[in-house]
Every structure is written in C-alpha cells, then in structure tokens.
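Input (structure):
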C-alpha cells in the first residue's frame, strides 16, 4: 500500500493501516512530515508563515492516541503544530516507512496485474507498483495564477503567497496584499509586525471576520461548537440552510461587534455572502480589524490595473504610487489531472468545473477497494478532526470490517450530490469551496460508523448515551461539553478497533482545563 503525503491525515492513516497488518509506504514531497505546518525554505512547497496562528482551539489539532504536551498554548502557532506533528511521527516510529523528497508525477492503472503504478520526478522511467493508494496531499498543492492588467509595465515584485517566507524582507516597502482570506490576513498582519511601509489590503468582496480568541479572557471563540451541539448545526445546515445561515451570520456579526465595534462600510468588509449558501469567506484574525482601525493596513477595492512601473490603480479609481511588491493571496487549485485514471469526472459546465465522481468525496466507485482521496472534503469548523476521522475509517473499510454500499448506491449518491453541488458552485462562483463541499452530517455519521468510534451512540439521546450518563457522568460531560476532539474517536469499544487506554483521562483533563480557562476568563472580564 502507498500513502501520498505525510500530512496529519496521512500519518494517522499510516499508523492505523500498519496496526492492522498492512505493508505501508509513504511518499512525501517535503523533507519532513506535517504538511504545510512544518516550516520549509523550499519555495516550491507551500508552508504556513511562522507568524500564522490557527483559527481553532488547540484540541482541534490533537491527534488520537497522542495527548498534546502540557502547557501547549490555546492559540496555536504554526511552528507549535509542526513540532507536535513531528513528535507524533517519532513517538509511533512512522519515519521508518516514509520516503522524503519524493514527488509523484503520474498515476496509472495496470489492469493486467490489478495494481497502481506511480512514477516519480527522480525516476521517470521506473514506476513502482502498489495494491492500494491513499491520496492525502491536502488542499495547498497548486498555487492559482493571475495575470494583472498592465503587469508587463510593473517593475516591482509580484509573487504568490506560497513563495512568501521571511516578510521582514519587506521592511519599509509599500506592499499590496491581494485577496481576502486567512492567508491574506496573515500576510498583511505579518507585514505590519515586520515594519513594512504602506500596506494595501485589496479585495473585491467582503468577508465574515471572526476573532478567534477573546482578548480579555483568552477563551477561544470556537469552543461553543461542542460535540453535543454540532449535530444540531448539521441538521440545520442540510434541512434548514436559511435558518442555519441566519444563526451563523448573527453569531459572527455579534462576535465582530463585541470585539471591535462598528463594521464600517468604507472598509469593504460588510458586503459578504451569507454562511448558509456556501459562498461565504470566514477570516479568523485577531489583528486584521485593529490594524485597519489604526491605519496600519489600508483596506481598498480590487486591482483594476497596474498603471506604471510602481503604480497600482484600484477599482474605485484610487491610485497607489511607489508600490514595491504585490503578494497574491488568491488560493490554490487541486492538481487533479494526475488522478484521471482513478477518478471519473463529470464534464465541466459553463459555470462549474469538472466534478470528481467520488462517493463521500473519498471513493471512486470503480476502484473503491484500492483508491481513496482523503483531501477533498471541506467541513464547517476545524479541518483536522474530519481528515483524521476519514483516516481512521478507511483502514476499517479496506480490512473488511465496515462494508461500503453496492456500486449502484454509490453511483446514485454521486449523481444526487453533484446536482446539489452544481447549484452551490454556480451560486458561489470561484469564491466558494468548490467540489470539496459535502453535507457535514451525512459525511460524518457515515465515517463514524465505519471507523467504529461509537461517538454519537454514546453522546446523544439513545440508550447507550443514557447508560454512559448514568455510569460515567464525568466522561459524558467531558465529551459533550468539549469542542470536537479526536481523543473521543478512541474512547469507546465498538468491536472494530481497540480503544486507546488513555482516552478517558485525556478527555477529562481537556474538559477540566477548558472549564478552568472559562472560570479564569470570567474573573478577568469582571
């Protein structure tokens, strides 16, 4: 078996497959594990800035079987997460199965021997054969490109954010940051920190700006999305999207007001699509709005044209002179061309891209027993718990412990899903989550059942939930009141995968730590 990439999902999948007796080999493009969270100077590999802070609380990045170290900060910086992921790999001796600095250039099917053949950039004439392939390359693979009007006349630097490393190099320089997303906010804030000159935050649409942590109390904003509450949001998201959107929009708007006061129209952030229709952009940033308020960052419309060697004209006619650099924070595209022998695509329409035919955004029905893509799902909230859940479920499926539905049912699901998805993408245009969207509840319940977590049998209203509440109320309260944490994926024995002996203690300690933080925050707030 071959796993592409040493990302968090790739590492968990590798450990789980190995525990079940599979012969696993991992190929990683970078020189270390951890994906974008592990720093690299290689400009051909995307890496999070050292200044980047995660949007979610620390327990959203925790991996099963491996507690966060004592004193791990609630607001997680990229280097902290990179170190944790590396220590996970060392603890479980994963490095011995990983080949680093290996870039896959081609994937083909050997129909005679029923195997997959992989070709690598350093051995183009010698493909390697594998029985099964798990694709875990993440969503930051292929930087989107953009040619700006008048670009040939511009003499400053134009670079994609994936090429940005040491932003202190822009000290005293005037910089335009193009885009409105978490990366754009990270880059703009880091430029302020490193003493850049004028910083223009250029965007054509607004965004939902969410303060990830209360500055007074230190309590992360997302801890309100507890394990017991999340299923309600899943139900509303699927069956009452307008109500769901109104609730989430109201919560984010109140977060903004409580944090920074009025969202002034001249900043260009107000006109933002709702969260119920898949078009929204949520930017988690502690510093973006304060930096706009104090003038450190100038929020301006999109770029109309580059009007000279160092001149940028914006959509409203405003002109910025003396621009030294433009940093394009315009996102990434999935490099799907390499997977055309594994995945059937529905042809592109005028307003939608070609859609991959994947059951649950993971399995191509024709090759569901030998190929899985674990990086094509975008959930509301933190992404790591969802990727880990898929990485726990897949080994159980391929080991024969959790069956997939018949081919006809998988194909029908794909057709229905793509009909829904086409409507979402047409409405969102290039700014939504594309074909990565799923109904969060359907996807999650399927994988919880396949992985054998038992989580929503023991937290909810069924007999098992009442039994846990009666027998072990402390554990029940811990799981119910914590935000989604992968420790809870390994606490119950459902006859498929052995539980983690330390799961109960880890969950209770996490809950107590969160309760202590809330109490301390409440005292500070008074």
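Output (sequence):
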């Amino acid at each position: 078996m071959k796993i592409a990439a040493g990302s968090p999902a790739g590492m968990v999948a590798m450990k789980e497959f190995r525990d079940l007796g599979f012969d696993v080999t991992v190929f990683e493009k970078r020189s270390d594990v951890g994906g974008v969270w592990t720093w690299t100077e290689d400009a051909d590999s995307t890496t999070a800035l050292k200044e980047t802070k995660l949007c979610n609380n620390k327990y959203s990045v925790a991996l099963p079987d491996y507690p966060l170290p004592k004193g791990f900060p609630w607001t997680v910086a990229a280097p902290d997460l990179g170190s944790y992921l590396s220590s996970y790999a060392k603890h479980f001796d994963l490095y011995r199965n990983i080949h680093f600095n290996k870039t896959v250039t081609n994937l083909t099917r050997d129909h005679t021997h029923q195997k997959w053949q992989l070709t690598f950039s350093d051995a183009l004439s010698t493909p390697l054969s594998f029985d099964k392939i798990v694709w875990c390359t993440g969503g930051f693979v292929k930087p989107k490109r953009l040619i700006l009007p008048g670009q040939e006349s511009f003499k400053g630097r134009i670079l994609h954010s994936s090429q940005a490393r040491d932003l202190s190099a822009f000290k005293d320089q005037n910089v335009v940051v193009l885009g409105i997303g978490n990366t754009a906010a990270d880059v703009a804030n880091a430029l302020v920190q490193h003493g850049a000159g004028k910083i223009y935050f250029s965007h054509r649409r607004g965004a939902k700006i969410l303060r990830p942590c209360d500055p007074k109390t230190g309590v992360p904003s997302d801890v309100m999305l507890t394990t017991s509450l999340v299923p309600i949001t899943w139900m509303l998201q699927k069956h009452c999207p307008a109500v769901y959107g109104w609730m989430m929009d109201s919560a984010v708007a109140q977060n903004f007001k409580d944090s920074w006061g009025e969202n002034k129209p001249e900043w260009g952030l107000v006109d933002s699509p709702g969260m119920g229709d898949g078009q929204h952009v949520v930017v988690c940033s502690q510093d973006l709005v304060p930096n706009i308020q104090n003038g450190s960052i100038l929020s301006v419309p999109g770029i109309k044209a580059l009007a000279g060697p160092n001149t940028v004209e914006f959509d409203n006619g405003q002109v910025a002179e003396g621009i030294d650099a433009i940093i394009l924070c315009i996102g990434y595209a999935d490099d799907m061309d390499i997977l055309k022998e594994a995945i059937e695509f529905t042809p592109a329409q005028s307003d939608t891209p070609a859609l991959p035919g994947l059951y649950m955004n993971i399995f191509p029905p024709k090759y569901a027993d030998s190929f899985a893509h674990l990086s094509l799902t975008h959930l509301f909230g933190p992404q790591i718990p969802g990727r880990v859940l898929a990485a726990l479920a897949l080994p159980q499926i391929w080991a024969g412990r959790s069956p997939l539905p018949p081919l006809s049912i998988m194909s029908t699901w794909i057709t229905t899903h793509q009909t829904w998805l086409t409507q979402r993408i047409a409405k969102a245009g290039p700014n939504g989550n594309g074909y990565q969207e799923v109904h969060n509840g359907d996807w999650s319940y399927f994988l919880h059942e396949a992985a054998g977590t038992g989580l929503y049998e023991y937290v909810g209203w069924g007999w098992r939930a009442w039994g846990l509440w009666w027998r072990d109320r402390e554990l029940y309260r811990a799981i119910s009141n914590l935000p989604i944490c992968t420790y809870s994926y390994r606490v119950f024995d459902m006859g498929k995968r052995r539980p983690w002996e330390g799961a109960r203690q880890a969950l209770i300690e996490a809950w107590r730590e969160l309760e202590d933080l809330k109490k301390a925050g409440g005292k500070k707030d008074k």
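Notes: The chain has a mean pLDDT of 90. Residues 503-525 form the longest helix (23 residues).
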